[in-house]
Amino acid sequence: MTSGTPSLGVDRDRCIGAGMCAMTAPEVFDQDPDDGLVLLLAPEPPAAHRAAARMAAGLCPAGAITVHRPDAAED
């Protein structure tokens, strides 16, 4: 992970396949065609997609997306 770059994590066991992430940030998330669960396409999304990725994490009804902010730990 690049220092200062937010990274994402997903918990496929927690995911319910609602698809909010893939609709909100399709450059970052997709859905598995077999089971409908989240697929993380960009664990360290580029700056242009970070806001959408954060929004997708907040919209996830199962709380299956985690945003890791390395700078926050240094405060």
Any chance you could write out the topology, listing elements then pairs?
Layout: E1 7-10, H1 20-24, E2 29-31, E3 38-40, H2 47-59, E4 65-68
Antiparallel strand pairs: 1-4, 2-3
In short:
The chain has 75 residues and is of the alpha+beta class.
* Separation, N- and C-terminal Cα atoms: 19 Å
Strand order of the largest sheet: 1-4
What is the SS-derived class? Answer: alpha+beta
The stretches of 5 or more residues where confidence is low (pLDDT under 50) are none
Number of strands: 4
The value of Rg in angstroms is: 12 Å
Shape: globular
Major β-sheet annotation: 2 strands, antiparallel
Strand content: 15-25%
Residue share in helices?
10-25%
Task: Provide a descriptive summary of the structure in words.
The chain is α+β, with helices and mostly antiparallel strands and 75 residues long. The chain is built from two helices and four strands; from the N terminus they run E-H-E-E-H-E. It has helices spanning 20-24, 47-59; strands spanning 7-10, 29-31, 38-40, 65-68. The strands form two sheets. Strands 1-4 form a two-stranded antiparallel ribbon. Strands 2-3 form a two-stranded antiparallel ribbon. The mean pLDDT is 92.
